[in-house]
Amino acid sequence: MSHADRTDLPSRPGAAGSRMAWAKINLTLHATGQRSDGYHLLDSLVVRAGIGDELRVAPSDRLSLTISGPGAAGVPTDARNLVLKAAALLDADQGRGAALHLVKNLPAAAGIGGGSADAAAALQLLAAHWDLVLPENSAQLGADVPVCLADGPQRMRGVGDLLTPLPALPACHLVLVNPRVDVPTPSVFAALDNKTQPAMPEVLPEFSALAEFVDFLRGQRNDLAAPAIARAPVIAVCLEALDDALLARMSGSGATCFGIYETTAQAEAARARIADAKPNWWVATGPVLGA
Questions:
Q1: How many domains, the chain?
Q2: Of 114, 119, 213, 232, which residue has the fewest beta carbons closer than 10 angstroms?
Q3: pTM of the predicted model, to two decimals?
């Protein structure tokens, strides 16, 4: 089954359906400033990978959430979960019901937007199930939720609120590696020495070939990598494990790292090699969506 076949929004209001919550990958992440309220300003090239959680909905008189999957342990099923927060935002105290089930594949707090992707999937799925329009204030669920509502590549600026859709990128595949260590985002930002660094070029080029795209990425940065590695040196080991990739970099605030590969076979070979060498790590592979 291809990634494109794994989303089946309800065919009519009230019907059952499903939506994939794709991992969000920051191919670049430039810290360009900090507002007076403490929020950091970013400039980031964001893509969605064909690796994710799956959210399902079925008719019900009341709202409920159940969770299964390899990443389910410790994930709350009450109002703390972003899926139910998204449902509450969309429902606006009208008391609509739905039976939601989340298959949790992505690790939590991993720098790949798992919870935000789940929230975005919940908004899209329940909007179809309840016959509603998507809310304009989805960012109140989290800064990454708006970008997770788009499958295609985006340039994300500001505090995550300024999104610019980008043309399709050259086809490529990602291997994601997470050593299962917790790297809290606030602590990584707090350890960032220079919070006002250069942005990406004002106009991003269009890329006709993967080598051209990778060469551009090599000239960009993830400004959070150094403070994250200082807190969790194993992140550097993850990057070393991806040394056969065209480019290896940390995503978001960590600890997940990605490697870019040209073909499915190359990516799968790297995934199998790393999983065999590091059986306690989370390792997955999938295509870049919108490429």
A1: 1
A2: 232
A3: 0.94
